[in-house]
Write a structure and sequence with these properties.
The protein is of the alpha/beta class. Helices cover about 35% and strands about 20% of the residues. The chain has an eight-stranded mixed sheet with strand order 3-2-1-4-5-6-7-8, sandwiched between helices. Helix 2 packs parallel to helix 3 (about 70-80) and helix 2 crosses helix 8.
Length: about 240
């Protein structure tokens, strides 16, 4: 019924395949909203199992899922929500060697991992295959979302692993923040697929949960970026 989507937009959602790298705080809520929106196929990529401590923020799972592979538990929950969505499970860790194969044939990729090596591998594969990348991250009370469609790429924003890199397991995170950031990544994926509105392409949204504020900053391509600059040169 949304004028910006309509029947054609719903059909584009039905024909789309979205990969979710990491079924954690970002990927869990994002997958629920994408399945509910009628995305045709969701590819779940994660080699982890559900832990009790995950349940505080990863609302895709419940207590009975503890110790089950996340992609297996996620498949059951998403199929129960929308049996018309094809769920493709990949219970493996994405690496630079496997990224291209794992993300092949996808229309959009959502990266919600908190491992920088994985993020760099996802970004390189998306740039090479010209796949839009939606990146979401969070920690403590704040999070960020960005969309990368060619240049600038994620590597222009983060050139190397920060020496003081934090993870949710190390610093903690308020559970509701995962819902906020996860829903935002799903929103960006839906906009990219349907052509509605203006995606965060080339922009970074910063959300501060404690202050209840957000701001958007524009990203600039690094002319010496080892990922997207070389791809542009070849083109």
């Amino acid at each position: 019924m949304l004028a910006e989507v309509g029947g054609p937009g719903q059909q584009r959602l039905k024909a789309a395949r979205v990969a979710l790298v990491g079924m954690g705080g970002v990927g869990a809520p994002a997958s629920l909203y994408l399945a509910a929106a009628g995305v045709g196929a969701l590819r779940l990529i994660d080699d982890d199992t559900v832990a009790l401590s995950n349940l505080q923020r990863q609302i895709l799972f419940d207590t009975a899922d503890v110790a089950r592979p996340k992609v297996q538990a996620g498949e059951a929950r998403l199929t129960a929500l929308n049996p018309h969505v094809m769920i493709e499970t990949r219970p493996v860790r994405l690496t630079p060697e496997t990224a291209a194969e794992l993300l092949a044939d996808c229309d959009v990729v959502i990266d919600g991992t908190d491992d920088f090596d994985t993020r760099f591998a996802v970004n390189a594969a998306c740039v090479s295959a010209d796949i839009p990348l939606v990146s979401g991250s969070l920690g403590r009370w704040s999070g960020q979302v960005a969309v990368f469609t060619g240049r600038p790429c994620y590597c222009c924003l983060v050139a190397e692993t920060p020496p003081d890199a934090e993870t949710c397991a190390r610093v903690g995170v308020v559970g509701a923040l995962a819902g906020v950031i996860g829903a935002m990544t799903a929103m960006e994926a839906i906009k990219l697929i349907t052509g509605a509105g203006q995606p965060l392409a080339g922009r970074l949204l910063l959300y501060d949960g404690l202050a209840a504020t957000s701001r958007v900053v524009r990203l600039v391509a690094d002319p010496a970026c080892p990922v997207c600059a070389s791809v542009q040169a070849k083109a």
